[in-house]
Amino acid sequence: MNRDVSGTGGAARPVRERGTSRRVKSRFRLISGSIATAALLLAMALDTKVVKIGSAAAIQPGVFSPATFGASEYPKVKAEIEKRAVDAATLAQALAEDKQAAGKRYGVATNSGFEFSVKFTGVAGKPDFGVYPVAIEGAPKALTIHVQTGPAIYGMDLRDASGIISFGQFVNQIDYQNAGGALNKEMKKQVMAKIDAEKLEGKTISVVGAFKLGKPDDWMVTPVRLDVK
In what helix (H) or strand (E) does residue 44 lie, and over which residues does it extend? Predict the structure, then answer.
């Protein structure tokens, strides 16, 4: 008489076979996954181009580059502000008579008021963190004119006073804001880098620049030209 002395019964062999089959399938899936991963990594490596940070190739199409914008647009902005610039004494008189009329005649309207382009020659006073008061002949005594020379340049006057740059040209507010900062940086490269901005006190300077009208008798001018006499 044949008897199963293993104590496990006749079902033991099928159990082992099923276990073996599961292990084989698991190994097959592991190998297949490894092959797929290797193929993906190879494809990524073949499709990857190494570029130097800051190079033209590193700028993705459609991605706003402040540095590129500043370099290309600053000369246009400078030319427009120079063309629009009004003599300081003339502008001061017009503002004293009628701010709205002066804004419409000489300024560029923005959401927060008027931006003006102005030109003047005067003597630079004692600076305060890179900001010089300038005494101008022919200007009202109540008028205070300051010129900011850096190192920090504040405001969006260069962007807004030109009249050739608008929010609609940009994808979002961040790019629009960065455009203004880029123009300020480019101005520092092209204007401030050519003079000793720390030693202007007591010297006669000629300035062409822009400012946002706050108080009619207190101007903070961002220059696009600054010549030392």
Answer: helix 12-47
- Residue 44 CA: distances (Å) to CA of 23, 30, 48, 58: 32, 21, 6, 18
Instruction: Find all residues with CB under 8 Å of 101, minimum gap 6, and list them.
Output: 94
Predicted confidence band at 116 (pLDDT cuts at 50, 70, 90)?
A: very high
Cα–Cα distance between 14 and 121 in angstroms, integer? Answer: 102
The CA-to-CA distance between both ends of the chain, in Å, stands at 125
Q: What is the rounded distance in angstroms from the CA atom of residue 133 to the CA atom of residue 179?
A: 27
- Rounded CA separation 22/18 (Å): 6
Q: Is the dihedral of CA 166, 167, 168, 171 positive or negative?
A: positive
Integer CA distances (angstroms), 165 to 32, 124, 177, 213, in order: 56, 31, 12, 18
Question: For residue 227, what are the β-bridge partners?
Answer: 206
Residue 215 has what pLDDT? 84
Asked whether residue 39 carries a pLDDT value surpassing 70, the answer given is no
pLDDT above 50: residue 52: no
Global pTM value: 0.72
Q: How many CB atoms lie within 10 A of CB 97?
A: 9
Checking if the pLDDT of 16 tops 90, the result is no
Under 8 Å between Cβ of 73 and 219: no
Q: Residue ranges per domain, the chain?
A: 1-48, 63-228
